[in-house]
Design goal:
Elements: H1 8-20, E1 43-46, E2 49-50, E3 54-57, E4 65-68, E5 73-77, E6 85-89, E7 94-100, E8 103-111, E9 114-118, E10 126-129, E11 134-142, E12 150-157, E13 162-169, E14 177-184, E15 186-194, E16 202-209, E17 217-223, E18 231-234, E19 241-244, E20 252-255, E21 259-262, E22 270-271, E23 279-282, E24 290-293, E25 297-300, E26 308-310, E27 318-324, E28 327-332, E29 335-339, E30 347-348, E31 354-355, E32 358-363, E33 371-375, E34 379-383, E35 391-393, E36 403-406, E37 414-418, E38 420-424, E39 432-434, H2 437-440, E40 443-449, E41 457-465, E42 468-476, E43 484-490, E44 492-499, E45 507-513, E46 516-522, E47 530-531, E48 542-547, E49 555-559, E50 562-566, E51 574-577, E52 583-586, E53 594-598, E54 601-605, E55 613-614, E56 624-630, E57 635-640, E58 645-649
Parallel strand pairs: 2-31
Antiparallel strand pairs: 1-58, 3-4, 4-5, 5-6, 7-8, 8-9, 9-10, 11-12, 12-13, 13-14, 15-16, 16-17, 17-18, 19-20, 20-21, 21-22, 23-24, 24-25, 25-26, 27-28, 28-29, 29-30, 32-33, 33-34, 34-35, 36-37, 37-38, 38-39, 40-41, 41-42, 42-43, 44-45, 45-46, 46-47, 48-49, 49-50, 50-51, 52-53, 53-54, 54-55, ...
Amino acid sequence: MPHLKKFMVVMILSLILLVRMNSDSAAPDDLRQAIPATLRIWEMLGPEGGSVKSLAMNPVNHNELYAITSSGLVYRTTDAARTWRLTAALKRSLGDVEFDPKNSNVIYLLENEGTLKSTDHGLHWTEYPFGAGYSGTSSLTVSPADPNIIHVAGRFSGTSSRRGTVHRSTDGGKSWLPRIITSGYSANCDGLAVDPIDPDIIYAYGWYYWLFGGPFYYNFLKSVDGGATWSYLSLWSSIHSIAIDPNYPSRICVDSGGIYRSTDAGLTWTKSNSEASGVLAIDPLNSNTLYAGSQAVYKSTDAGIHWTKSSQGLSGTCSSLLVSSNEVYFASDAGIYKSEDGGVSWQESHAQLIASAVMVLAVAPSSLNTIYAGIIGGGMFKSTDFGRHWTKLPSSFEATASGLWVNPQNANDLLLLNRQLWRSSDAGLTWTAVPKVIDKMYYPQEVVISPSNPAHIFVCGFDYHDTTRFMGLEVSTDGGQSWQLFEVCLNGSGYALAVDTSNENTIYVGGSLDGKGALFKTSNGGVAWTRIDGGVFGYKSVKEIELDPMSNSGIYVGTESGFYRTENLGGTWANTLPYPVTAIKVNSLNPYEVFAAGSTGIYMSGNKGKTWRALNPGLPVTDISGLAMAVHDRVLYAGTWDGGILSLRLPTRGRR
């Protein structure tokens, strides 16, 4: 892995780009404010790879590609995916990326409320909204015949119904005309394809239902007049992808629980006798060669009649597939993979591209250079040099973990919660399942281990008595060999857990009760419980609990509606940060210093959460999944949902 990766220049460039974009929307992390002089730039550490939403290839120079993530990261390669460079951090949901087929300086991005257009290889972006109530979903096409004609799959959300739409622009994306294709209580256009020769011929697919809860109906439609009118091609089950032969547009392939082919522009269809399915792509130089990408790649050399499968070297589920003769690019929720032999073999091709979704993150207290992370779709990773380089750890489980503990005295001793508890005594090289956890409670959510006695393990979550859900707590005093289950409440779910380290009989469990946020306390190890939130959380679940280490009565709670604090064990509460908070970190060396994070970024308090300042300037991704800290080095680490792990060296300051 090459030297990483101080994206200081990129981050400053991204700030300039955002200032220049035509957007008046306000956000709590508004990057148009000046960056405080004392604030260092965030560093993207890795691991490399992660969830890539879409790929686009320069139609003239095939060594140049763009990759986007759903959170707004835009990466560019000029060496055929050997290395990638972050060119923009737009902090908005992106759905697709496309080049102008006749002017490779022009690039389009699809976002929820409109499109972004660059005419200088992504240096500057201009936003063109669809209009009030209209949004884009996941598909943008630029006509090869007339690049001023652009189509986007989308929807309209009205006061009483939602409609699937196809947005059409005839002036290069500056203005948009929505075309309704389907209506209902809820409806959506999931994707589309446009005839490469005649841009008035459009194929679109989506779904709708008339009554709340269904049943669902799927439709596949065709327009020959630019979307003014539509005709049904057939009654299909859900369609996932469509590809039109660039040389013979009457040849069409769709994935609908299998590959279907039409040679008469959609009038009749033949299903391929193959397990092939997934994202479809046609070789532009040989239209008899087709590819379908799912968790493997299927290839046909006879226009979709017969297929062969390859998967060695691939990881994740395909989101985008590009073909340029024998070079094939496969983007997934695990990264980008490239084949140079027509799909026979595959290699990772996401060096310096960081888009991983971090589920769990922990710094080893006894070895602050050691960091562990669990990545969705990627497994467990370890760094021993403060996150500069990462090693993937062997594991037999999918790392959608909800809890990770590192022994404070031994950085090699780990405990991970992933529907089951797993223990490793060799720094993650091997893992052993801790028995009987899900025998008591089938949906464990968070784990806490006693810092004074690692044999004491606490797990919160939920399960069912027949059809009645209950919030629960499991306690083990023998390292997980046996468990005792305590019922916290009926009709509830436990998501967050805290244990008083001075008295381990005092335990707090938070989550939801009858759809509302709730926090419970026990003073006798789980035998009896008292609700202490006073109903202040409303309809927002409790996601995180931290205890004030300087006070026996101070509690911090993170919910989807903000950060709450109490100084009297829940007698009164104050919401001091009105943004979603799913992670809280208290500086163990200076407990006045508290950090909170969620979907709008990261915030810092120097007075136990009474007031806050944003740490978001320079932050490339604002959707934060977790926090960790190397307290002696004053380095804050943040796990993100598709920007990997970030770090920020905090300035040295006094207690307050």
